[in-house]
Amino acid sequence: MTTGLRWVLAPAFALLACAAMGHEPGQWQGGVQGPQPRSEMAVVQDGDLAYLIGDYVGATEVLIYDLEAQSWSVGPDFPYRVHHPMAAALDGDIYVFGGYVNGWEAIDAVWVLDGETLAWSAAAPMPSPLAAGGAAIVDGKIHVIGGSRSGAVNTDAHMIYDPQADTWKIASPIPTPRDHLGVVAIAGEILAIGGRVDGDPAFNLDTVEIYDPQTDAWRSGAPMPTARSGVAATVLDGKAFIFGGETRQVTFAEAEAYDPLTDNWTELAPLPTPRHGFGAVVHEGQILTLMGAPTAGGDRSNLVEVFVPSMP
């Protein structure tokens, strides 16, 4: 899709291959680098397109990656500078929730990008301001979970948005308030994985909590082997894949997969470039990790590294 795009970057194919280390499942290969660096943005997938929205240092252009064509394009500007927003894709539209503006001021705004016209429109605001949380879809409803208020103070928020009615309701709060967590949906349930306390990566968590919308109740899952935050999270073959993260001093190369059916974790081949503040999407059985910061703090990159699973 090129309608309304400013320009398109020609694809450059696989750059290098990194073999899996030891017994760890999977291997890595290079991907098509992005046209601009990004970190602490929302990454959301709609079919064969991945959208990157927001940026830690204020870039407003939406970056769009065509997973099938392996090419990047630069789309419309987001309405203002934002970092740490949440996002979800549904029925061809991209929904962007909250984030930080003017430094660390959390907002309640919701914006919708029409996938056909690439035009932005405002939607009903969230019941409360939120940034650095997560979003996942179950049964056509978007759950926005965790995160922080202004000043990076955690909240136990769990808000459900109905795109058809443009309305919100409050659900059972997340038991462990945290930000910079991974939030994914698997088999009609929502998994909240890892994160940090009040925005401080010196206090990373290994916590796994699972929400059942049928009962509006949370339960605990097996802890993540490596406590971390600022991760990239996605789902493939019914498993949650969690990559990277940071402390105050270093970034994580760890890659781990959680199977909710067995409540077990599997260690994977580590990221070739440890990163945080990035995202992950799935295409043809592979996972693409997009952009992010190779060093702790406010770094950025245009890196794309592709994980090819060989799960046991």
Automatic annotation (TrEMBL):
InterPro entries attached to this UniProt entry: Kelch-typ_b-propeller, Kelch_1
SMART domains: Kelch
SUPFAM superfamilies recorded: Kelch motif (SSF117281)
Signal peptide from the UniProt entry: 1-22
Keywords: Kelch repeat, Repeat, Signal
Domain of life (superkingdom): Bacteria
Pfam family, one: Kelch_KLHDC2_KLHL20_DRC7
Protein name stated in the entry: Kelch repeat-containing protein
